[in-house]
Design a protein that fits this description.
The structure is a single chain. The chain is mainly α. It folds into 2 domains: 21-87, Orthogonal Bundle (Helix Hairpins), CATH 1.10.287; 98-197, 3-Layer(bab) Sandwich (minor pseudopilin epsh fold), CATH 3.55.40. Helices cover 48% and strands 11% of the residues. Strands 2-1-3 form a 3-stranded antiparallel β-sheet, with helices on both faces. α2 (54-61) packs across α3 (71-87) and α5 (111-124) packs antiparallel against α7. The longest helix has 23 residues, at 22-44. The two termini are 29 Å apart. The model has no long low-confidence stretch (mean pLDDT 97).
């Protein structure tokens, strides 16, 4: 089963007013994301993973002892990460649904405390990686960060929100200002209805 590059759920210029330019989406989605699709398909062809789901490949090829993961994991996990990332954003400022706000406040004390933890996770990820809002098996919410393409599927967690802190995600629009990118992501880009739907 060959994977395909999903179309963006909005036009390439739809997020420009919210701080993510058409140029960023052209590079990030059309080139970087497509490379994960193409490389992943090439690497799984003729292997035991060729007919597996994307989630099964991510979990099955993850090695918790390896700093540098294998090529199949790196590409397929990044394919999954980006499939989620585009859906987690949207044009037009999104309000946080009450049930999500209540869950976040219950786990972190307040929405502002969550924002601080999420931003700190994104800032604290040395080099390339992601920061996440996840739901644990017991229903509690937690902020995590992962290196490179590793994602919460590897740890049995449900992803509610993820922010890509690889430089290609923000360098065109924010240069080296990762804190500004993270603040803008939370303020202007997140589709909170999508986040709530993952609960």
């Amino acid at each position: 089963m060959a994977f395909e590059l999903p179309a963006l759920p909005y036009a390439h210029d739809a997020l420009a007013d919210a701080g993510m330019s058409k140029e960023t989406l052209e590079y990030h989605h059309d080139l970087h994301h497509k490379a994960y699709v193409d490389n992943g398909n090439r690497l799984i062809a003729g292997t035991e993973w060729a007919d597996k789901s994307i989630e099964d490949i991510v979990v099955g090829t993850y090695d918790s002892s390896a700093v540098a993961q294998n090529g199949i994991f790196n590409n397929i996990s990044q394919l999954w990460n980006h499939n989620q990332f585009w859906e987690m954003m949207g044009p037009g400022k999104s309000a946080m649904p009450p049930e999500l706000e209540a869950a976040i406040s219950g786990s972190f004390g307040s929405v502002e405390a969550f924002r601080e933890q999420f931003t700190a996770a994104g800032m604290g990820q040395f080099g390339s990686g992601w920061c996440w809002l996840v739901k644990e098996a017991d229903g509690g919410l937690k902020v995590t960060r992962t290196e490179n393409g590793v994602n919460p599927l590897c740890f049995g967690q449900t992803v509610l929100l993820g922010c890509d802190v690889w430089e290609h995600s923000y360098y065109i629009d924010f240069r080296n200002r990762r804190p500004a990118y993270l603040a803008n992501f939370l303020d202007n880009l997140v589709n909170w209805e999508n986040v709530a739907s993952r609960m």
